[in-house]
UniProtKB/TrEMBL annotation:
Membrane-topology descriptor: Multi-pass membrane protein
Organism per entry: Brachypteracias leptosomus (short-legged ground-roller)
Gene Ontology MF, one: G protein-coupled receptor activity
Regions crossing the membrane: 12-40, 52-74, 101-127
Subcellular compartments: Membrane
Taxonomy of the source species: Eukaryota, Metazoa, Chordata, Craniata, Vertebrata
Name of the protein described by the UniProt record: OPN5 protein
Length: 139
């Protein structure tokens, strides 16, 4: 069972959600930047990837993750013990309409959309490499 009080459970779950969302969002941004650099070279020339741009992107990643991680703290969704009671996470069994909407928003904007962007980005990169390979063979 969970050995600590509700405040520690909430902190534990908040950190897990925040860092998990930061990880997936970082991978999404990285795949998108790679796609733009490889598939759209003109874009790469007008937007040099500098430490300043990296910092802005990281700030956006953390802000995006913070919005969804702090939502349960603002009573949109909730944190609580997992079904086995050994750890804490988002309360997946929605008890209200707001909790259901939070879970739906989390699924769409923090799982489905990032996964689709990663899939599209790497598919475009592979397609570009394939087209370039054919052009080199014909040349």
């Amino acid at each position: 069972r969970w050995l600590f009080n509700q405040a520690v459970c909430t902190l534990y779950a908040f950190c897990g959600v925040l860092f998990g969302l930061c990880s997936l969002t970082s991978l999404t941004v990285l795949s998108t930047v790679c796609c733009l650099k490889v598939c759209y070279p003109a874009y790469g020339r007008c937007w040099d990837f500098s430490p300043c741009h990296a910092g802005v992107l990281l700030l956006c990643v953390w802000a995006y993750a913070l919005v969804f991680a702090t939502a349960p703290l603002a009573e949109w969704g909730s944190y609580g013990p997992e079904p086995y009671g050994t750890a804490c996470c988002i309360t997946w069994e929605a008890s209200s309409r707001e909790a259901t909407l939070y879970i739906l928003a989390l699924f769409i904007f923090c799982y489905l959309l990032p996964c689709l962007l990663i899939l599209v980005s790497y598919s475009l990169i592979l397609w570009r490499v394939r087209v370039s390979r054919r052009a080199v063979r014909q040349h």
